[in-house]
Amino acid sequence: MKRFILIVTLALSVTALFGQTVRPGMTYKELKQVYNTKSYQKTLTDPFSPFWLGLTSFAEPGVGQLIAHEPGRGWAFIGGDFLIGLVGSYGIRTVYNSIEKDADGNIIKEDNKIVFLDEKVAKKGAYIFAGAALANLVLRIWSCSDAVKIAKVKNMYNQDLMGRYATATMYPSVDFVQTGSGYKPTAGMTFAVRF
């Protein structure tokens, strides 16, 4: 019995030393702790294309994340893009409303320059719009790189689940051995390697 307890303890400690095992149904939060995107190698069985997810997320932030089955991240990027768009449209509207117009609504120009009712307000609106445009560019780049990272991590996870890499497991086992006086339980360790 002491031998059995020793073997079980050894098996549990060896399993803990080898780190996290990959199992079906893991979340992206768990997966990004296991996989390093720098070691990603593309295969034909990859379900996600890092290039296309990145391009899609650059064109419309958050869509690549939605395609990669990360709705929380996707909707967060879409919401951020929407809010930045609201701020940018406020800036443009501020500039447009500060432009002097005649009774018919035509823009008044002097010496081929637009005349403003309040030039300070127009500059403020222009700065708001420029800041929103810069923030939108940063958000698009961030969303693009995030979608690429998600695609690589999920592809590596898929490769492991499909058995592209060998996995090793060690667990205790109990077997019955026939002796002269009957059957006697024996404890041991089972080591399995899967390719």
Average of pLDDT: 85
Strand order of the largest sheet: 1-2
Unreliable stretches: 14-19
**How far is the first residue's CA from the last residue's CA?**
34 Å
Q: What is the count of DSSP helices, taking H or I runs of 4+ residues?
A: 6
**Helix fraction by DSSP (H/I, runs of at least 4):** 55-70%
Task: Provide the succession of SSEs.
Answer: HHHHHEEHEE
What profile does the largest beta sheet have?
A: 2 strands, antiparallel
Show the helix and strand layout.
Layout lengths: L1 H16 L10 H7 L15 H10 L3 H5 L3 H27 L11 E2 L2 E2 L4 H43 L5 E13 L2 E13 L1
Antiparallel strand pairs: 1-2, 3-4
Helix pairs in contact: 3-6, 5-6
Structure description:
The chain contains six helices and four strands; from the N terminus they run H-H-H-H-H-E-E-H-E-E. It has 195 residues and is of the alpha+beta class. The strands form two sheets. A two-stranded antiparallel ribbon has the order 1-2. It has a two-stranded antiparallel ribbon with strand order 3-4. It has helices at residues 2-17, 28-34, 50-59, 63-67, 71-97, 119-161; strands at residues 109-110, 113-114, 167-179, 182-194. Mean pLDDT is 85; it is low at 14-19.
Task: Summarize the structure in short.
This protein is α+β, with helices and mostly antiparallel strands and 195 residues long. It has helices at residues 2-17, 28-34, 50-59, 63-67, 71-97, 119-161; strands at 109-110, 113-114, 167-179, 182-194.
